[in-house]
């Protein structure tokens, strides 16, 4: 093998190694369970997470696995399935506390999928004061996942979360805060995570954009 | 020389007025050093640790404290982790008292000095469910010294049982309450569960 | 203005750099290092006294000694002595505390010698506990030799077996005496919500002989009185924490406040009927459970002493006058002790003599005792009973033969109140403080007893 060809081969190898070591920056085609990933037209390259509003009795065991006693079996539940994460959001009978079931792998090996952890947040005048960060879950590759609630601003219909190579879009549903997830900007040692969040109106006009810094607390 | 002295003063003022400095407040004095792995963890050593956190304040998402019996930032906005004030919150105090690891799958004993700024991955609600290798749910009637009662939004450690059937609870209760020992009836409250730490050595 | 020279410009730049560096070094002031900052915390203690013992029951006195945390994570190097004597008179005998392997009930212990434990007059004792590292000591109870703890044998106790509690079969109220929606107008009650406290509403109440209900509306900084002719509000200077309250016979009000960030010790505040302050007194001990109106003024059950102390006195005097039972007047006391998971022991005593006693056992776990009060020849007891996810109150009216009346009450507790301030007995009626998402209320339950 001549030197030139060897150089060429080495270059290809180096490129391959570099590419293999990096996360893909491409827009994913599929969501967590293989559903095709729709795009939110106003945000180029975005992925729309599935969002459904269902009764707990419709979800059946999927809801019962993580339902607290204070929540009715037929509670209204917002189910979300994204690229990496999945969640359920619902309130208790008194509408005092909003709960979440957060999906992924439990690093302690105590809980079976889909739900590895959960959160609860007190509602004050119908709104959360704290995003209730949860970093107790891992994705299928063992990477930390962060979950948090975002309160929609007035007029917001869609919440976007920058995931690096794409923006994951969540629809505001059920008059509840929106449970988002991300694998970026997580500091496990300091129990903190940061989300790059944008909010859009019904027509897709961007209303607000900013960094939401969260910490495990309470 | 005159120019040097004048600008020296300006430089000192500039250093003191940096936004980053003001933002970090008490946390600027805390550290992020590794915990000390210990083979021993007794309930009375835990009582010593939790008792020493009394009067040191309360910080949502915290934290760290310095044993001077004074809350350095007593009027911080409640529920704001960015305030970076002194003290832990209820779950942070429990995490540190129970010598837990940031890695949920570890159940070893990790001693955190008071000035080590750490909260841990557990909220009160997660403690209540017994999440994490070190934690488990126990019957409320069996809860003893340095076990805990946890609801979805709060956790307090049993300092000692008490005569009329309630408990002396050491807890980081709230911004205005601070961290202290209070008499509580969490044991019989349906919204609370019993929680314990694996691995006491005495 | 003169043009700056190169030299002065260089000097200025150097000055700014040096100043910034110096300011950063001065301002960082980190505690640094891995060791805890130096601090000598006063030694603390905890002890659960065996106030009422069954004849023949072996008695072990256990103590927790709590000191400054050690950097090696090991427990306190403590020691102590217990001073014991049979009855309430005579010299004390000193016994050194042993050190056990477990701290779950208190690491330091002493077995009460059989001849003292079996004394018909019971025994009295106090302990001096030490931090061997620095020599600090604490005495429990706080009054030491002047007001030792007393333990009495529970003789001739009426056995009351409550059995399993039937949750959901609760008695309906006879009268809803007051209802107050959440708010700040007169006739409304304040509620504050934080994620840490949950929701806090009126923390205590009292009822006088005329049926006037006084509610401590601490969120709104006032007392409110509901009488036959309407409701009136009286501003009082309180901290807003979860406080207990008692109305004294002359219309004064005692408010017992927990520590907070600005007042790190519990305080008793007294107000006259107009709300003017009659004084503030810090408690002798670090923690309180309950406030009651005693024959000589307000009394408070305090920890770690686990004694009732006259809280209007100065701290040293409080400790010197501590008693194991709630003072009833005429030298009598009411002793209450929760034992194990489902037992409650009660005794009315006069000196060393037991006037009447009951031993209540429940198959359902018992929680805290909310109320234990005389009602003529009877006694009314309200205790919480609970499972992992249910909690109700069981009300017992007892006489020398046993149970005269028994019923269950729900525990409507949407907002938090003081821990043992949910019930009051006035006349032959039991009053309960409750709350819902819409407001606070006081219900009355008339007890079917003839005096």
Q: Would you summarize the structure shown here?
A:
Chain A has 218 residues and is mainly beta. Chain A has helices at residues 3-21, 56-59, 61-64; strands at residues 47-48, 50-55, 76-81, 86-91, 97-103, 115-124, 127-128, 134-138, 144-150, 158-162, 167-171, 178-182, 186-187, 192-200, 206-215. In chain A, the strands form three sheets. In chain A, strands 1, 10, 11, 13, 14 and 15 form a six-stranded mixed sheet that branches. Chain A has a six-stranded antiparallel sheet with strand order 2-3-4-5-6-7.
Structural class of chain B: alpha+beta
What order do the SSEs of chain A take from the amino end to the carboxyl end, as H and E? HEEHHEEEEEEEEEEEEE
Shape of chain B from CA axes?
Answer: globular
Rg over C-alpha atoms of chain B, rounded to the nearest angstrom: 19 Å
Unreliable runs of chain B, pLDDT <50, ≥5 residues? 14-22
Mean pLDDT of chain B: 88
Under the CATH scheme, which class of chain B? Alpha Beta
Strand content of chain A: 35-45%
- Structural classification of chain A: mainly beta
What ranges of chain A have pLDDT less than 50 throughout 5 or more consecutive residues? 13-23
Helix content of chain B: 10-25%
What gap, in angstroms, lies between the N and C termini of chain B?
Answer: 66 Å
As laid out across the biggest beta sheet of chain B, the strand order is 5-10-6-7-8-9
What is the oligomeric state here?
A: heterotrimer
Q: Could you give the count of β-strands of chain A?
A: 15
Largest sheet of chain A: 6 strands, mixed
Spatial extent as radius of gyration of chain A: 19 Å
Mean of pLDDT of chain A: 89
Q: Helix count of chain A, per DSSP?
A: 3
Structure description:
The complex is a heterotrimer of chains A (218), B (202) and C (451). Chain A is mainly β and 218 residues long. Chain A contains three helices and 15 strands. In chain A, the strands form three sheets. In chain A, strands 1, 10, 11, 13, 14 and 15 form a six-stranded mixed beta sheet that branches. Chain A has a six-stranded antiparallel beta sheet with strand order 2-3-4-5-6-7. Mean pLDDT of chain A is 89; it is low at 13-23. Chain B has a single domain (36-197), classed as endopeptidase fold (from Nostoc punctiforme) (Alpha-Beta Complex). In chain B, 67% of the residues are buried. By secondary structure, chain C is mostly beta strands. Chain C folds into two domains: 44-153, Immunoglobulins (Immunoglobulin-like, Sandwich); 159-446, Neuraminidase (6 Propeller). In chain C, strands 2, 4, 5, 8, 9 and 10 form a six-stranded mixed beta sheet that branches. Chain C is globular, with a radius of gyration of 27 Å. The chains are: A mainly beta (218), B alpha+beta (202), C mainly beta (451). At the B-C interface, helix 1, helix 3, strand 7, strand 8 and strand 9 of B face helix 1, strand 1, strand 3, strand 23 and strand 27 of C.
């Amino acid at each position: 093998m001549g030197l030139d060809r060897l150089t060429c081969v080495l270059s290809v190898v180096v490129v391959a190694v570099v590419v293999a070591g990096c996360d893909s920056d491409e827009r994913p085609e599929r969501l967590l369970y293989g559903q095709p990933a729709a795009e939110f037209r106003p945000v180029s390259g975005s992925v729309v997470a599935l969002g459904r509003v269902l009764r707990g009795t419709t979800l059946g065991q999927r809801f019962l696995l993580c339902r607290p006693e204070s929540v009715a079996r037929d509670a209204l539940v917002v189910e979300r399935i994204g690229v990496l994460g999945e969640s359920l959001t619902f309130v208790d009978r008194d509408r005092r506390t909003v709960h979440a079931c957060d999906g992924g792998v439990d690093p302690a090996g105590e809980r079976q999928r889909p739900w590895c952890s959960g959160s609860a947040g007190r509602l004050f005048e119908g709104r959360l004061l704290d995003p209730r960060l949860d970093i107790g879950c891992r994705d299928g590759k063992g990477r930390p996942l962060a979950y948090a609630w975002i309160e929609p601003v007035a007029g917001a219909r869609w919440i976007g979360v920058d995931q690096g190579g794409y923006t994951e879009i969540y629809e505001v549903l059920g008059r509840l805060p929106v449970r988002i997830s991300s694998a970026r900007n997580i500091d496990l040692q300091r129990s903190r995570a940061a989300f790059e969040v944008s909010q859009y109106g019904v027509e897709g006009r961007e209303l607000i954009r900013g960094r939401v810094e969260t910490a495990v607390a309470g | 020389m005159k120019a040097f002295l004048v600008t020296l003063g300006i430089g000192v003022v500039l250093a003191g007025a940096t936004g980053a400095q003001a933002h970090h407040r008490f946390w600027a004095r805390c550290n992020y050093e590794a915990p000390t792995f210990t083979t021993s963890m007794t309930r009375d050593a835990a009582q010593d640790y939790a008792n020493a956190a009394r009067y040191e304040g309360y910080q949502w998402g915290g934290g760290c404290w310095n044993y001077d019996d004074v809350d350095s930032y007593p009027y911080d906005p409640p529920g704001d982790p960015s305030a970076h004030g002194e003290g832990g919150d209820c779950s942070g105090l429990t995490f540190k008292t129970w010598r837990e690891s940031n890695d949920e799958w570890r159940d070893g004993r990790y001693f955190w000095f008071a000035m080590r700024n750490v909260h841990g991955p557990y909220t009160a609600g997660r403690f209540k469910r017994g999440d994490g290798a070190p934690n488990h749910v126990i019957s409320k009637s069996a809860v003893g010294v340095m076990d805990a009662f946890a609801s979805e939004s709060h956790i307090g450690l049993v300092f000692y049982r008490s005569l009329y059937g309630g408990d002396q609870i050491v807890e980081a209760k709230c911004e205005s309450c601070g961290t202290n020992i209070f008499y509580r009836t969490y044991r019989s409250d349906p919204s609370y569960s019993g929680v314990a730490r694996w691995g006491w050595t005495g | 203005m003169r043009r700056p020279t190169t030299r002065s410009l260089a000097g200025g730049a150097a000055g700014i750099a040096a100043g910034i560096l110096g300011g950063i070094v001065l301002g960082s002031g980190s505690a640094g290092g891995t060791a805890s900052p130096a601090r000598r915390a006063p030694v603390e203690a905890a002890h659960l006294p065996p106030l009422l013992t069954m004849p023949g029951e072996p008695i072990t006195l256990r103590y927790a000694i709590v000191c400054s945390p050690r950097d090696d994570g090991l427990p306190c190097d403590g020691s102590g002595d217990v001073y014991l004597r049979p009855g309430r008179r005579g010299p004390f005998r000193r016994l050194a505390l042993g050190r056990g392997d477990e701290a779950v009930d208190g690491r330091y212990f002493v077995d009460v010698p059989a001849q003292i434990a079996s004394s018909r007059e019971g025994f009295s004792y106090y302990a001096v506990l030490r931090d061997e590292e620095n020599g600090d000591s604490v005495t429990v109870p706080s009054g030491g030799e002047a007001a030792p703890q007393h333990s009495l044998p529970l003789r001739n106790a009426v056995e009351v077996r409550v059995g399993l509690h039937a949750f959901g079969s609760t008695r309906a109220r006879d009268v809803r005496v007051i209802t107050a929606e959440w708010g700040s107008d007169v006739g409304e009650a304040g509620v504050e919500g934080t994620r840490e406290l949950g929701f806090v509403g009126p923390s205590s109440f009292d009822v006088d002989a005329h049926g006037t209900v006084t509610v401590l509306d601490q969120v709104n900084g006032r007392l409110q009185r509901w009488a036959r002719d309407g409701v009136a509000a009286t501003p009082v200077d309180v901290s807003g924490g979860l406080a207990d309250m008692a109305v004294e016979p002359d219309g004064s009000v005692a408010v017992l406040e927990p520590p907070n960030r600005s007042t790190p010790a519990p305080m008793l505040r007294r107000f006259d009927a107009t709300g003017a302050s009659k004084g503030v007194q810090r408690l002798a001990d670090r923690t309180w459970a309950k406030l009651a109106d005693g024959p000589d003024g307000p009394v408070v059950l305090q920890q770690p002493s686990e004694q009732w102390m006259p809280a209007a006195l100065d701290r040293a005097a409080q400790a010197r006058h501590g008693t194991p039972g709630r003072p009833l007047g005429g030298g009598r006391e009411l002793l209450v002790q929760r034992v194990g998971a489902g037992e409650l022991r009660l005794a009315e005593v006069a000196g060393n003599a037991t006037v009447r006693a009951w031993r209540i056992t429940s198959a359902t776990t018992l929680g805290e005792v909310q109320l234990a009060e005389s009602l003529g020849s009877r006694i009314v007891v309200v205790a919480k009973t609970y499972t992992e996810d249910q909690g109700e109150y069981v009300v017992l009216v007892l006489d020398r033969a046993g149970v005269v009346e028994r019923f269950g009450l729900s525990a409507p507790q949407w907002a938090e109140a003081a821990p043992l301030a949910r019930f009051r007995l006035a006349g032959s009626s039991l009053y309960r403080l409750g709350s819902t998402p819409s407001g606070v209320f006081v219900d009355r339950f008339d007890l079917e007893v003839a005096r």
